[in-house]
Amino acid sequence: MARLLVQDAPPRYCRAVPERSLSERARQLIRQGAEVVLDAAPTLLETVDAATLSAAGVRGIADDPALAAALRRSNYATVVYWAAHNVRDPGGPVPPNLAPETLDIARDMVRRGLNEFALDAYRAGQSAAWSAWMSIIFTLTRDPDELREVLDVTAGSIAAFIESTIAALALRMQRERDELVLDLQAERREAVALVLSGAPITADQASRRLGYPLGDDHIAAVVWSDDDDADRQDLERAGARLAAALGERRPLTVVAGVSTLWVWVSVRDDEPVDLRPGRLLDRVRPAAGVRVAVGSRGTGPEGFRRSHLDALTTQRLLVRSRPTHQLATFEAVELVSLATQDEKAAQAFVARILGRLADADEELRTSVRTYLRRGCNVSAAAAELFVHRNTLLRRLTRADTLLPRPLDQHPIEVAVALELVRWTGAKSD
């Protein structure tokens, strides 16, 4: 049975913690307390585990050794997750913990017939963790004003964190239950095939069958691995993070093969979406071996089809490209895709336009490409590259010595040729 896609940090399930300006002393105390939690996690977790396993409504967990062990692992992951966030950003918002240890217990609960009431165990654990946290803070300061500020902020932080995690787990449980009862994947594949083939099925009919708003704007993606033994969780995690990055927390996901997922993300028609590959890659963080091809943005059933076809085009280009590229968007590679319809002609074009620059080091090519993309603005390009303006000028001078013709005589051609080298490695034989 295919495992379901889980979204990262659904905001509608997060109780917002009011933003406030923390004093530097409060930040210092929270960081110190979080470091104590990380150091003392095994001991602290004994109290949390005891509280969660004795909570009302969780006998089905406590009596099951495997589930009890899974809950202990989830408790550990949850406590460490919150503490680690507060070491990095004391008092900052902490998104739900959707680590595998946490998601797996939701799946196991459903398979043992437990319902969402079992998630009350986390609230019992929250009370135990809060008592331990107060004890830690009281060892760090006795100043009433400092205590008031730190405890006020962290009380809201812990409560919001636990509630959002419970909400995400409840949603996961519902999805797992749907998968078990209805075998949604089979129905999704059938309905998606009808839409992609242009069959006479209305948007309303398809939306009902898919549980997905087909009339909205869409961005499709292909998430895959070249390894047939790839961990499905790695694929699902990449798809979930992509969906969250694009603004949607409940994407449509179809298992298209042993190591391939097709994903559609519904986006509001008035919502801008950042499709820069670098920004998306930073947020998706695909595991080693997992690659992501993102399609164009389209509206309605035709946009659903077109975006998927564009994602497949992007995937084909990525397959031909150097293995260093884990993520690409159709928006970024459309020109390259068109220019590589004739691969031999593309190689000849690169050789003729770039000359020896085609074989130069990546740093030099990136510098020239950034300079051209920034409209030949040296200051803007240097700022993006994090180098001094004079350093960039020296690189551009060096590039001119490698190009058959000076850069300022044919900047557009050089920009296209550099994109070809970047995405396909196209060079003369």
UniProtKB/TrEMBL annotation:
A Pfam entry, by short name: HTH_30
Top-rank taxon, per record: Bacteria
Residues in CdaR GGDEF-like domain copies: 203-316
Domain PucR C-terminal helix-turn-helix: 364-418
Family membership: Belongs to the CdaR family.
PANTHER family registered for this protein in UniProt: CARBOHYDRATE DIACID REGULATOR, DNA-BINDING TRANSCRIPTIONAL ACTIVATOR ADER
Name of the protein this chain belongs to: PucR family transcriptional regulator
